[in-house]
Amino acid sequence: MQRWYTRFPHGLPAIGLLVLRIAIGAKLLLESLHCLLGPHGLDLGIATVAALAGGLGVCFILGFLTPLVAGISALGWTAIYVWHPAYATTLSDLASFEIIAVAIALALLGPGAISLDAYLFGRRKIVIARVARS
Hints:
The protein has six helices and no strands. It has helices at residues 12-37, 44-62, 66-83, 85-90, 93-109, 116-121.
């Protein structure tokens, strides 16, 4: 993970990335709930896609494996836009492109310092104990 990012931004950039992650994560969670509780019923394919979207939304909000999650969600939204344009037009064309653009931006920028990625994979301070010489 550290090879993907040279650093995790702190301060206001970290808060901005957190806001972007929460916005996309909440959108994915709401869309997954809409699919599960909507008029489609519990079709296996729709339930699987909804569960995947819900899991991606939680990972976005927590900032866990952000580049992977952002790539998967950008590809997923692009696939929805290409193969199911009727669903994409209910969101409006501009909203679909905004979601894809923010997901790509998060994949390139990283999760920021306020994330599980920074906690798990961020830089560590290594302290080497002094050895007493006799």
